Amino acid sequence: MHQTPFQRSLWTFACEAHAAGDRADARIIMKMIEAIDASDYELARQLCLALRPWYRDRCGEVPVRRGLDEGATSG
What we know:
Layout: H1 5-19, H2 23-37, H3 41-49, H4 53-59, H5 66-70
Helix pairs in contact: 1-2, 2-3
């Protein structure tokens, strides 16, 4: 399975969080990526709420389902 556009963004944020020493946020973001792998966008939204505000704002709105995530770059 390939990464969705949202997962690619999350990966960037996880790397930035890890580099900044924000290990807990990096782990939460990685769990969000795993949730999306399992098509569990509801869990990804719940995990996003656990992020500190700066990372939550960077993540933005979590897609509702894979089809909307995949379509994020089309059009």
